[in-house]
């Protein structure tokens, strides 16, 4: 599975990119047929100005999209990973019923 990261309105440092890879790569064990994940990191004018949007591309199914805001990118990514885990388990159960 490929993880593509795009940072909008800022340059993501290597530490943040490694964190994204580490957190999202773990999700492959819940649904191994994922083709790729597209991650958008964005700064917003809100007080909780860190936005993370993750799109999971699974061949033959609708894409799974999760969008979260937080005070830090790490918190938003962790939140996205938790939600994606549940959604991937549901998608796999639905597919193999």
Mean pLDDT level: 92
Report the CATH superfamily: Ribosome hibernation promotion factor-like
- Rg, please? 13 Å
State the major sheet.
4 strands, mixed
The CATH class is: Alpha Beta
Listing every helix as H and every strand as E from the N terminus to the C terminus, the arrangement reads: EHEEEH
Instruction: Report the helical percentage.
Output: 25-40%
Give the percentage of residues in beta strands. 25-35%
Instruction: Specify the structural class.
Output: alpha+beta
Task: Please count the beta strands (DSSP E, at least 2 residues each).
Answer: 4
What does this structure look like?
With 97 residues, the chain is of the alpha+beta class. It is 36% helix and 31% strand. The protein has helices at 14-25, 73-95, and strands spanning 2-8, 36-43, 50-57, 64-70. The protein has a four-stranded mixed β-sheet with strand order 1-2-3-4, covered by helices on one side. It is elongated and about 45 Å long.
């Amino acid at each position: 599975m490929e993880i593509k990261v795009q940072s909008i309105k800022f340059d993501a440092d290597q530490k943040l990119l490694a964190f994204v890879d580490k957190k999202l790569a773990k999700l492959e064990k819940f649904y191994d047929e994922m083709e790729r994940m597209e991650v958008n990191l964005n700064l917003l004018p809100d007080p909780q100005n860190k936005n993370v949007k993750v799109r999971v591309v699974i061949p033959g199914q609708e894409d799974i999209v999760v969008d979260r805001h937080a005070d830090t990118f790490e918190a938003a990514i962790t939140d996205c990973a938790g939600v994606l885990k549940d959604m991937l388990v549901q998608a796999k159960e639905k597919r193999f019923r």
